[in-house]
Amino acid sequence: MFNNTQSSSRSFQAIRRALFTLSFTGAAMCTAMMPAVANAAPPAQQKTQVPGFFRMKLGDFEVTALYDGYIDLDPKILKGASAKDIQNLLARMFLDNTPGVQTAVNGFLVHTGEHLVLVDTGSATAFGPTVGAMLGNIRAAGYEPAQIDTVLLTHLHADHSRGLLTADGKAAFPNAEVRVAKADADFWLDEQIAAKAPEAAQPMFKLAREAVAPYVAAGKFKTFAEGEALIPGVVVSPSPGHTPGHSGYLFTSKEQSLLVWGDVVHNHAVQFARPEIAIEFDIDSKKAIASRKKVFADAAKNKLWVAGAHLPFPGIGHVRAEAKGYAWVPVEYGPIRSDR
Hints:
Blueprint: H1 2-33, E1 53-58, E2 61-73, E3 78-79, H2 83-92, E4 101-111, E5 116-119, H3 134-140, E6 150-152, H4 158-161, E7 177-181, H5 182-188, H6 191-196, H7 202-217, E8 221-224, E9 234-238, E10 247-253, E11 256-260, H8 268-271, E12 278-279, H9 285-302, E13 305-307, E14 316-321, E15 326-330
Parallel strand pairs: 5-6, 6-7, 7-8, 11-13
Antiparallel strand pairs: 1-2, 2-4, 3-12, 4-5, 9-10, 10-11, 13-14, 14-15
């Protein structure tokens, strides 16, 4: 038996040596037969970004952030601090300001189960080739513009309302009712007010009138007064100052709430840390600052989800109170979860 065991061991060792030799020889042959690609050039760089949408659950609602593009804003339009202070705040967040600070333009699509609601429509062609991706990203997110039944505008500035139109000037959302605060419509759509405005501001009035014109003609443009009910699960949250009727919209489902706040913030690096810093686009900067401070305090206290038109995409997150000022806490990318 001992001899048999030794014989088996020797046979096993011989088999291992043979297999090793065979595998080494085969690997060498395969290597020799492989095409010489080590020095080949890689394919061309793609130079495109992924589609601009991001989804999250809010109770039974589904929220889709939509990227329209970006605008480079000159930091000189921020008012209420020295240029050095503003540059330091930008540098602290590693923000480049050449040729300007890259500033996102976002919209938000909320599926309530009963309604498909779009808050703000982007810029379309109003500010050049770096914006205007809203319609394409709605489709990339799985919807068609014709399926949207309600468009809520935070205000009538062109980077929020001009996306109401297609490239040929028709209604981009043909089945939607468009709503905006009466105070904003009374200001931006009044030709007498426009005529008295500074010449540099008059194009903004014209862009607003043109944006809503197809909906006015179809009887689908309606204003609302403060406190007026819109649709179930949505409450108007007035924040005047940036424009006369500037408004956010508070969406609530199963005790979870998201405030889509429009232009409460234009620059996250500066205005969270220093809420008293305004922007020259504000119609009434004192009111805008007061609104921003109130919104920040409420959002931090109540731990609201918030969504901003000019926050870095997807523009959704929380506001955290600091010893001095506030901080922006962006949403974490992840799967769509129904257990939260």
